[in-house]
Amino acid sequence: MTKEAIQSRVDLGELLPLMEEFYTIQGEGYHKGTAAYFIRVGGCDVGCHWCDVKESWDAAIHPPTEAVTIADNAAKYSDTIVVTGGEPLMWDMKPLTTLLKERGLQVHIETSGAYDLSGDWDWICLSPKKRMLPKDEVSQKAHELKVIVYNKSDFAFAEEQAAKVSENCILYLQPEWSVRDKMVPLIVDYVMANPKWKISLQTHKYLNIP
């Protein structure tokens, strides 16, 4: 297949730049502690300086993989599938989510919301970033808002983003891992003063699992 043909199929979402896929325990947010199969799609230009998966940023180094192959692999492991990145909404997610749904799977996404929403999702975890703000549609359809707290200014940013989601969206503040010892006490105080928020921790890192 020519490079042009491959790129055409990537643009259609029939092929995706797959970085990795693995079965593990969801460590964050509303579904923490539950088994899930993760599909990590390469490609991201949001550029968070504290990102712990920077190897996902360059889509070109991750092989274009058939969406049907990804779906078949996922169906072997779990009823719950989490599509993450990178930033998965850089790509058309409709073909992949259609294939996953055809296999009777629950399909979740973790996204910055910086790109237009595509795909059919049972759960949308929106983790907005200051550099590229989320699209209104993603904010309005999010089931879960997870704001990463790296410094004190992130509390104001969190409130700005909370004003954009629906009243049924669950609100989480999560300390960035490298500054957790400094930020956790501030988050605890903030949540106690503003109980509409909950605390999310990266429990998979405490458990030393992927």
What characteristics describe this protein?
nine-stranded mixed β-sheet; 210 residues; 9 strands; alpha/beta; 7 helices; TIM Barrel; globular
As laid out across the biggest beta sheet, the strand order is 3-1-2-4-5-6-7-8-9
CATH fold call: TIM Barrel
Helix-strand string: HEEEHEHEEHEHEHEH
Straight-line distance between termini: 34 Å
* Assigned CATH superfamily: Aldolase class I
Q: Which value, in Å, is the CA radius of gyration?
A: 17 Å
Average pLDDT for all residues: 96
Number of strands: 9
Count of distinct structural domains: 1
Label the CATH architecture: Alpha-Beta Barrel
How many helices? The count is 7
Largest sheet: 9 strands, mixed
**Poorly predicted parts:** none
* Large-scale geometry: globular
CATH class: Alpha Beta
Helix content: 25-40%
Strand content: 15-25%
Q: Based on helices, strands and strand pairing, what is the structural class?
A: alpha/beta
